[in-house]
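Review form for a predicted model. The reviewer records the input and the model, then writes brief findings.
Reviewer: anonymous (R2)
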Amino acid sequence: MRMRCWLAVLVAAAALPASGVARAQSEPDRAFLLIANPQLQDPNFAGTVVLAVRVDQGGPLGVILNRPTTTLLGEVYPDRAEVAGRKDIVYFGGPVQPDALLFAFRSATRPQQGMLVAEDIYLSGYSRVLDELLKHPEDAAEQRYFVGYSGWAEGQLEAEIEVGGWYVLPLDTGAIFRMNPRTLYEDLLKRALVPRIEARTDGWRRAAPLAAN
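Model under review:
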């Protein structure tokens, strides 16, 4: 993993013209799920499901979906009245910038400072977007909060997939907001191991299991 500037990527994403957003929404593989091979030994990613998003420049970035911490959002912002009583769990999103708070959420309108994932789902790390999200506790089921994120240099993830480190699945938005994070890995690993006639995602060969030691 190499550190990448999350905010710089978000600035670039927020600056996309409307036509660019429309193209992104029409690309089925812009966002996808990475399922760690059971033999992957990297402690940051062993047993993980990662929401990954392709960006215009550089390698993909995203957040780990199944590493809940013991910290609640209200403990991160103890002085904010908007989070008093909220039970949102903060997730470990990845090893890059582990002190940064990021959030995935649904929005009927495109936020000015956010990166499109797919459909009406966005990722952001901007305080202005957070302020707006916290005004709507009724939407907490469609908001997820993460510390840190995951990022790859250009070509790095493809190489990891090629040697069998990851399985690649099409994006299932239920994995972000609805599926149980404690059983998410086992559920999606079973799905990834189902044989498929076509096993390519934008030219990426579906990962075969790593050779046993």
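Findings: DSSP finds seven helices and twelve strands in the chain.
Further findings: Confidence is low (pLDDT under 50) at residues 1-28, 203-213.
Recommendation: see findings above.
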